[in-house]
Design brief:
Number of strands: 0
Largest sheet: none
Mean pLDDT: 84
Number of domains: 2
Helix content: 55-70%
Distance between the termini: 20 Å
Number of helices: 9
Structural class: mainly alpha
Radius of gyration: 18 Å
Shape: elongated
Length: 186
Amino acid sequence: MPTRFLSHSEIERLESFPEEIDRDDLAEHFRLAGKDLEFVRSQYGSEGQLGIAVQLCALRWLGFVPEDLSAPPAAAVQSLAATLDVPARALFDYSVRPQTRREHRSLVRGHAGWRTFGEAEQAAVGGWLVGMALEHERPTLLLAELRRELRSRRIERPAIDRLERGWWRRRESALTTAPSSCWPSS
């Protein structure tokens, strides 16, 4: 049974920030006001504030937080830095410790009302995915639909390779037997 339908370069692209951001996405997802601004400003130092702001905005925009937080579109970083009145270069100093990024990601998820892709979310999305897998033959189309579904449910998207493997297992299960829990562990 094949488990890959994306190339390594496609996976890398889907795991990273896009190089550019359009004006509408910038206005919708990289705006801080009210409780968001209060939450971000409660963080220690300009690096922490900008870093957690990038994580919050990335989660809402992409449905996940890329590992390389130094690579969001320049316009997005500049917009957040101007709002926070911090230097945009502070992002490069953010979180030398991966533990800080992980702790902040948890804080960001909680503040934004998002959940991780845990067992309950896997089961709920798995049922939806079985129906979609029977309707669509093109795995890339189904993966795009799955990414949209996770965002609409406010579930942080796991790694693309995990979704890719889960899709194949769900599709095979849907075509042969009743659905079962077949999401690979992280």
